[in-house]
Amino acid sequence: MSKGKKRPETEMIHSGYNSAEHLGSLTPPIYQTSTFTFSNAEQGAERFAGEEEGYIYSRLGNPTVRILEDRITALENGEGALAFGSGMAAVSAVLFHLIQSGDHILCSRGVYGCTFGLLEMLEEKFQVEHDFIKMSEEEHIRNSIKENTACIYIETPINPTMELVDLKMVCRIANELNIPVAVDNTFCSPYLQQPLQYGANYVVHSATKYIGGHGDVVGGLLIGDSLEQINAIRMTTQKDIGGIMSPFDAWLLLRGLKTLAVRMDRHCENAEKIARYLTGQDKVKTVYYPGNQSHPQYPIAKAQMTNYGGLISFQIEGTIETARHFMNELSMVKIAVSLGDAETLIQHPASMTHSIVPLESREKMGVNDTLLRLSVGLEAWEDICEDLEQAFQKLNHIALPAT
Ligand code: LCS
Question: CATH for 261-395, among 1.10.3120.10, 3.40.50.2300, 3.40.630.30, 3.90.1150.10?
């Protein structure tokens, strides 16, 4: 968009793309090419030397992918962005960029299971240690920062416990000490939360989730508050490790982004109703949903999120068997990992997304055997409720067998 910044709903549709530069094509073309031809040998040399702007090879940049990178940069209010083949590729790129052997990473008290796996791998192979802490008390955060703390890595809301981290507070401390902060913003999408505005330096997304929104693509995005740093990552971690996004996947994500605002509004609306229903269900012990006033960090949710998102976790009364039985009785709601799709999905973190986390760490994070995570979809909320209700009723059946 040439005439300055528009509102997010508009930026999701227009930002980073000028149809006049693409034969008037309303939709961005898919530049399905591995390489780009140079008009002569001198031009090739100039591009490699960085003396002339232009594409070289799709691992180093591709026009369709670049439109997506520019669009997400605008949505997160950053200076630059990079697209990757998965969310994990984006997470690992930012960590590899920020750390060296012997460093320390301070993390929120819980992260997605594979991020946990990556942190363990960094420790085993490269002696990069990490600590998970509940980032609620300023003093505790300050005391947990070490001489060798190279970065603070945060999920908020945390997958799957829905615990929140006060971004303003953590970033203030980190900025003061010059420690970069990276925030995984997957659960919110840029529509509900923009961590850079609180002083974070990097934002990562599993674009597989709300940004794609249709369960048909795996991708990751990394946005930075410094174009210089993003370019450095492009020319190091991304170029050399090579976890790039394909032009077709970028195109799918550009298509997904066009409807992000309307989808998120509906996800949030549905989740609010389902959370209320679950809160009143006597087979449910606890509901973890940032929009519940009883959520311990409700004020943080109100301060840093524009709405409460489409994810709800809850503890079911009973045992792991009850949790499994409940899932198996669902008929419309699908049992699947991933989230942010049109379909309502349910999963059992202890045996699925977080099964890689050893029991002791899992319990410290609050991921126990009776915790279920629901990604509320775009269906009629009444149908979601009815499906949950009939599955809860089947549990009653088990509790009171006919004699
Ligand atoms: N960050 C968060 C918060 C995630 O939830 C995930 C995936 C990732 C990063 C990694 O993204 P990916 O490489 O899969 O694109 N979360 C999943 C989940 O909760 N269920 O299945 C995948």
Answer: 3.90.1150.10
